[in-house]
Amino acid sequence: MREDQRLKNIEYMKKLIDIIIILAKSEKPLRVSSHSEKEESCEKGLFLEIVQLLKKYDRDFESYINSALKNCTYLRNYIRNDILLSIKNVILRNIQNQLSGQPFFIIADETSDVSRHEQIAIVLRYVPIGSILPIERFIALKRLKSMDAETIFGTINSTIQDLGASWVNAIGVCFDWASTMSGQSTGVQTRCSPKKHVVFEDIVKLTDTQLKTLKSLSQPRWACRAEAVAVIQVQLKAIIEAIEKVVSEATDLIIRAKGNGMLNQIQSFDFIVGLEIMYPILQLVVKVSKTLLDHPS
Length: 297
Fold this sequence. Notes:
DUF4371 domain-containing protein, DUF4371, 53% helix
């Protein structure tokens, strides 16, 4: 009898958890402060409305709620918050297991909410154990008490530590171009540089003076285009070695075909000549642009 009741409890909780997961994935609130959750209320919020809908078509679900003590229906708002926290912990634990010992890339950006409070969003990009394709996982959205580099780095660092990840496995960082984030001496990007924790000669070929990562081309910003071309020129050998390693270890035929295609392109005569020609031209464009900005008159 007790075992039957335990199984019924489990099935009931599974349904409540599924409702919360669906609402969270849809970015819908479980309740709205302006709505009353009393029995006579016409609009109790999405969570309780879905519960009422399930009661209408699921007799076991209805029977459980009607027969349970009022403090054992698990429909109160603080219970929902506990379930949400448990779901979060399970997701983070799964990410920890996928990330265990794997190299990862940190993506972070600052923003402000509707109340003008500064926040930072932190995303990790990595290849899970047993896979060859990279994935991105949103890890945290944290409020910032200050916008200085030390506070931002401290927030990122605590998030990485809470996740159980190690800076030893951080192979790169990606931020916007705000001076606080990308400053070369005291910026967050410099503080997060993996070189401050370990030299990754077996993963990425680094120059002796700075960490260079591939950049995407920017249509309107010539400075970004110049940096993208500069990184490829400096890191061309490392890029070729990295692609060759991916091609040799990949089991997916599509990935191997794309990798071989990229190798053929970046080792072609046209590509190398174009790279050598574009680099000095773009550097000159950036220099002229900077001069015009510093001395507009």
